[in-house]
Amino acid sequence: MDLKALYEDCPRLEPDYVREVLNLTGDVADKVDRITGGIHSDEAALVDRVTRAVAPIVSLEIGLGYGFSAMAICEASASGKDRRHVIIDPHQSTYWKGKGAEHLRQAGFGHIIEIVEDVSYRALPRLEQGGLVVDLAFIDGWHTMDFVMVDFFYVDKLLRGGGVVIFDDADWPSIRPVIRYAVTNLGYTVEATLPEKKARDPFDIALGIEGSCIALRKPDEPLQREIFHHREIWESS
Fold first, then answer.
1. Domain ranges in the chain?
2. What are the Cα distances from residue 21, in Å, to 51, 90, 201, 237?
């Protein structure tokens, strides 16, 4: 099993996951049932390209599912003795039936993956307290803005200076503001994007932000911010 084979197999989202975890019902749930349980091929290509450029020794991923993004990251990075890919997925053994982990083991990456089956808002603080430092992170967990902001807050703590974070579904209205915040308030720079699928917001144009998958590079040194520091993440009316 490799990424190409995974796309050819094209596994769909588990119906129980759609209804019991995503809390979807009716026609919306039926529609989401037909969605492939992984990132799109153009997003996987961006992840591959960015991962090869970063060449991470330690990487972190929030959200495994069937393992599309994890496969892209693992295939694009060296697998030396110190290579680690830490994955947070509270539902891997239950709703996903362990398929993401199994796909990675079949591809020969079982020795570098470490799966944490807990919600990210509990798992990430433990990793930070344990001294984990990562070169690359991929955020694709729960998509409401509060969870995305918490995920990014801790990823920012874990990410080394000059490291890269990739946001999936970066065009969602709950995720785009977090990306804007990283650029405007924390000094992150845009590393890679995909073309926007709709009319671009002038504010995003000014920041160089677009598309459904966005990679940001953390500054080598953190910004020195006073307690009142704030930069707007919305265009002034």
1. 39-217
2. 30, 11, 31, 38
Domain 39-217, CATH class in plain words: alpha beta
Spatial distance between the Cα atoms of 74 and 58, rounded to a whole number of angstroms: 11
| pTM passes above 0.90 | yes
With beta carbons less than 8 A apart as the criterion, state whether 41 and 120 touch: no
- Rounded CA separation 158/153 (Å): 9
Tokens of 106: 């079949």
Helix count and strand count (H, E) for the chain = 10, 7
Q: Could you list the mean pLDDT of each consecutive 10-residue stretch along the chain, which spans 237 residues?
A: 74 82 86 75 96 98 95 90 96 92 95 97 98 98 97 99 98 97 98 92 94 98 92 77
Q: How far apart are CA 188 and CA 221, in angstroms?
A: 11
CA distance 118 to 82: 24
Query: Based on C-alpha coordinates, what's the Rg of the chain?
Result: 17
